[in-house]
Amino acid sequence: MNCDQVQKYIHAYLDGELGTDITVGVESHLDGCGRCREQMEFEVAFIDRVRSGMSSEEIPVKLESDVRKMLWNEDKRSRRRRSTRMVVGFAAAAALVIVAWVGLMPLLSPKQDLPSIPPLEEQVVANVVKNPPLEVEHADANEVSEWFRGKIAFAVEPPRFAQEAPSELVGARLYNVGDNDAAYLVYDVDGKKVTIQMFRSARPEDLLPVDRNVHRLPTKNGGWVTTTRGYTVGVFNHRGVTYTVTSADLDERALAGLIDDMR
Questions:
Q1: How many CB atoms lie within 10 A of CB 101?
Q2: What is the dihedral of CA 31, 37, 43, 48, to 10 degrees?
Q3: Which end is more exposed in the chain, N or C (fewer Cβ atoms within 10 Å of the end residue's Cβ)?
Q4: Residue 149 vs residues 132, 156, 178, 243: alpha-carbon distances, Å
Q5: Same-domain status, 71 and 150
Q6: For position 112, what pLDDT does the model report?
Q7: 147 and 241 co-located in one domain
Q8: Nearest 5°: phi and psi at 130?
Q9: pLDDT at residue 61 above 70?
Q10: What is the pLDDT of residues 205-257, one digit of tens each?
Q11: Which CATH number fits the domain that encloses residue 217?
């Protein structure tokens, strides 16, 4: 199984929806591919962060006991059948019960303030607002890629767009997102300014949104999109590199479509 196939199956794999043969193939590939493993860890961290952001309330003891008993009984039956697929199904069902309860807690208890942590979307929007001068201009993607060689710890491949609307890579520079060196790219897409910032984070899960005003991207690379300070921001991770796409001229649906067109 190759990287493209694993990217296609990764969400179904995390949801426990794959058959045994495909699951084995995905896990075998993940064991030997650091980039795809980082992508999977990014998605797992996203799910965990969304769940942890729902509520800090404890789950009732009886509910927890019932769920544990259900899992234990099913595990015993599963060992007799020599199959693990039903365990995965019941584990997913148990997780849904817990998540449903946690999701109801904000309606049943006083609202609590979330920690004051600068979210990723605020960091990238702040960079765009500063409008830093570009260090390389009027160059094609290959020239920009070569310019970044040796300046940053990963190969910078400026994205291209498959859509019919005209697009132009206006320029680029070296910049920072938090403590991470980043490639800062500016595009003109059909007269609209779009900024892409690319970086590799040692702990990408620390950069995930902590509030609920985000939406999953229905794209092949997953990720999320949100709006803040008048800017739309999309974020996804591809082969170990985090991409942020920012524009004041596109709404969330249009930006999601643009990201889906990236090549």
A1: 18
A2: 70
A3: C
A4: 20, 8, 21, 18
A5: no
A6: 46
A7: yes
A8: -65, -25
A9: no
A10: 555 555 556 777 766 667 888 898 899 999 988 888 999 999 999 999 999 88
A11: 3.40.1000
pLDDT in tens, 128-141: 999 999 999 988 99
Token couple for 112: 């609590």
Asked whether the predicted pLDDT for residue 43 surpasses 80, the reply is no
Instruction: Give the residue from 81, 108, 135 where a domain finishes.
Output: 108
How far is the C-alpha of 2 from the C-alpha of 26, rounded, in Å?
9
Site of tokens 């643009």: 258
Please list, in sequence order, all residues whose beta carbon lies within 8 angstroms of the beta carbon of residue 229, skipping any fewer than 6 positions away.
122, 125, 129
Interacting residues of 143 by C-beta distance below 8 A, sequence separation 6+: 136
Give the pLDDT score at 214.
72
Q: Cβ–Cβ contacts within 10 Å for residue 18, how many?
A: 19
How does pLDDT run across 77-104, given as a tens digit for each residue?
A: 655 554 444 445 555 565 565 555 555 5
Amino acid at 1: M
Amino acid identity for residue 97 in this structure: V
What gap in Å lies between CA 168 and CA 195, rounded to an integer?
12
Instruction: Please indicate, yes or no, whether residues 230 and 135 belong to a single structural domain of this protein.
Output: yes
With CA atoms as reference, report the closest residue to 236 among 215, 253, 211.
215
Q: What sign results for the dihedral spanned by CA atoms 43, 46, 47, 48?
A: positive
3-state secondary structure (DSSP) of residue 167: strand
Amino acid at 94: A
Counting every residue written for the chain, the total comes to 263
Domain end position, chosen among 53, 75, 108: 108
